[in-house]
Amino acid sequence: MGNNILLEAFAKGKTKVKLNGCNCVIYTRVSTKEQADNNLSLDTQKKACEFYASKIGYSILGYFGGTYESAKNDERKEFTNMLSFVKKSKEKVSHIIVYSVDRFSRSGANAIYLADQLKKAGISVFAVSQPTDTTTASGSLQQNIQFIFSEYDNQLRREKCMAGVKEMLLRGEWCTSPPIGYDVVKTNGRRQIVVNAKGKILKKAFYWKAQEKVTNEEVIKRLGAQGIVMSNQRMSAFFKNPFYCGLLVHTALDGAIVDGNHEKLVSKEIFLDVNEITSCKKQGYRINAENDEVPLKRFLKCDSCGKYLRAYKAKKNQKNYYKCNTIGCNCNKRADELHEAFESLLSQYSFDLNEDLMYLMKLQMIATFNQMQDESTGNIAQVESALSEINKKLERLEERYVEEQIGKGIFDKYVEKYSVEKKEIESQLQKAGKKVSNLDFHIDAAIDLSSKLATVWCSSHYVEKQKLQFLVFPDGVYYNRGKDECRTPKINSVFQYLSSLARVIAENERGNEQNFAAVPSLVARTGIEPMTFGL
């Protein structure tokens, strides 16, 4: 037994004795100036904390806070500085002294977590007006309840505040600072929002836009000449703010629009006219998101810059065109010509077989599917092993963070990285173990669609055409203006396989069914060489 003394360094479960220490820091906080002027002033908090530290005999190593900081979250500058100091100080800090727990934090569960992490580092949070012994289980529970009630009190205050805000808004009263162009004045004790000198100049901007059809850049230039500096982003927000035509919109109104009591800058008609203009392109045509006449927009891409081609109707000949908006590309083509070429491309993957040959195709499809399923099943064990490994990495990362071997920045970075990897692996696992119910139905549907791709595309509306386009060509189609041709980098392997299979069946039309079914299953390629087609 005596020999085991030499091996005590390898023992487990031994309780480490932590020295309480007598060094502390003081943290004080007020949320608003009103609090600072009342009983919870910073000076009152500081004196109470200093009195307690002096009474117990603690040495004060530093003061933190002393400013207006909301405790709704724990991203406060002074609060963060204090936490960094107590963790890195050469002189061991054992206590953080606050006036009350709600001065430390009102974030509820996160405050409990912070206090627990500090406790593991040998640092306790002590509130002089709510004394608890956090070294005991009951004391920790009491402090945690106080943290939760602080968050609850915060939520109640917010609900009451928002209820008051909503009532004011419903009466047509704007309760916060008005936007640019307005001043708040009091007449006979009544609060009013009126247009100021700057607002009278801004009023001209609405009329320039509505009557002269000038661009935002021109409006900004004219306003700058009269002493009002506006950015392009702020100018857009200005024109879209219904406050200027006498209406109130606010998140507290749950989507409702209320007539305000403030002075209007412009009429509703002018406001609507301006926003009709801003919803149009510079060339004067309107955007129609789902236009059956141009189904290849957001699908066709410019071969030079890789951006999607936009669609528009020319004023001169009233014809639809596809065009790249990138300056210098000059990628422009008549829509009907591109539609004809695309329909021709789809026809290459269509086929016309009788019922007997369709049945042979179905048998071959089932054989191919079963072969691919067998191959994917063999990968499940490998994917499960990778998932187990990533879970171990996440557990180890959490342990190192709790033990303060790494900081929060590194922890967040790698948690995000490993979580993305885990999600991808789980997706692979789900696909590998996925079984298809009613296989006959799905194969029949695939063969039926493949046999008439061009016909289905021509007879569908915009949304269905878009779905079919991306189903057959997942990466879209690229148009080269110089060569006047299109290319597609990828074709759905199912349609590629079906069209190839149809050609093989047609060539072996005179063979018997048994001999054909015995042919080894064709495995669809995962990718193909880029395909081009002329116009």
SSE layout:
Blueprint: E1 23-30, H1 33-37, H2 42-56, E2 59-68, H3 77-88, E3 95-98, H4 101-104, H5 109-120, E4 124-127, H6 137-170, E5 182-187, E6 190-195, H7 197-212, H8 216-225, H9 232-239, E7 247-248, E8 258-259, H10 268-278, E9 300-302, E10 310-313, E11 320-323, E12 332-334, H11 335-347, H12 355-377, H13 380-402, H14 408-432, H15 439-450, H16 453-459, H17 462-472, E13 477-480, E14 485-488, H18 493-507, H19 513-517, E15 531-534
Parallel strand pairs: 1-2, 1-3, 3-4, 9-13
Antiparallel strand pairs: 5-6, 7-8, 10-11, 11-12, 13-14, 14-15
Helix pairs in contact: 7-8, 7-10, 11-16, 12-15, 12-18, 13-14, 16-17
Task: Describe the fold and architecture.
The structure is a single chain. By secondary structure, the protein is of the alpha/beta class. Among the domains are: 23-157, Rossmann fold, CATH 3.40.50; 182-278, Putative Large Serine Recombinase, Chain B, Domain 2 (Hect, E3 ligase catalytic domain fold, Alpha-Beta Complex), CATH 3.90.1750. Strand 10 and strand 11 (320-323) form a beta hairpin. It is built from 19 helices and 15 strands. The strands form five sheets. Strands 2-1-3-4 form a four-stranded parallel β-sheet, sandwiched between helices. It has a four-stranded mixed β-sheet with strand order 9-13-14-15, with no helix packed on it. A three-stranded antiparallel β-sheet has the order 10-11-12.
